[in-house]
């Protein structure tokens, strides 16, 4: 992929060295190497991604420019227990059974519309600072 605009190349170079995220730096570096004549298969090997991913990076860059390098919102794994939906339910059961976390877990499972393992439940408690002493 050839990038004609010298200013864009300078911005890519800056992002590849000082970008906010690793993803931004990698994509900028891939675009620079492509501009220098590297083949997509070679880039895929260098960055340990599929050639299809490289083509997607190029396509995104053509469509949205430098904005395509940043992480898009809404990506990644979603919480199994969103705070806004389940916090009050979990707190209620912990308050009712402060010394019986497994019982509180079982009662929580009855009240929610999803299944979770006990470790996920404990992580939720820890993340939201919920315990028998500070509820």
Q: What class, by secondary structure content? A: mainly alpha
Computed CA radius of gyration, to the nearest angstrom? 23 Å
Characterize the main sheet. Answer: none
- Assess the beta-strand content as a share of residues: under 5%
Estimate the global geometry from the Cα principal axes.
elongated
Q: pLDDT below 50 for ≥5 consecutive residues: which ranges?
A: none
- The residue-averaged pLDDT reads 88
Our count of helices gives: 7
Number of domains: 2
Can you give a write-up of this model?
This protein has 135 residues and is mostly helical. The protein has two domains: 6-69, no CATH class; 83-127. Helices cover 62% and strands 0% of the residues. The chain has helices spanning 6-18, 22-35, 40-47, 51-64, 83-96, 101-111, 118-127. It starts with 5 loop residues before the first helix and ends in an 8-residue tail after the last helix. The mean pLDDT is 88.
């Amino acid at each position: 992929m050839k990038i004609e605009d010298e200013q864009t190349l300078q911005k890519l170079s800056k992002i590849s060295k000082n970008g906010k995220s690793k993803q931004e730096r990698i994509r900028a570096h891939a675009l620079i190497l492509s501009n220098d004549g590297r083949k997509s298969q070679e880039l895929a090997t260098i960055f340990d991604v599929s050639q299809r991913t490289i083509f997607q990076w190029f396509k995104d860059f053509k469509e949205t420019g430098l904005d395509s390098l940043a992480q898009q919102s809404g990506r990644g794994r979603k919480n199994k227990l969103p705070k806004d939906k389940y916090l009050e339910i979990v707190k209620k059961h912990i308050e009712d059974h402060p010394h019986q976390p497994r019982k509180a877990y079982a009662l929580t499972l009855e009240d929610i519309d999803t299944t979770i393992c006990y470790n996920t439940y404990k992580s939720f408690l820890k993340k939201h600072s919920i315990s028998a002493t500070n509820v």
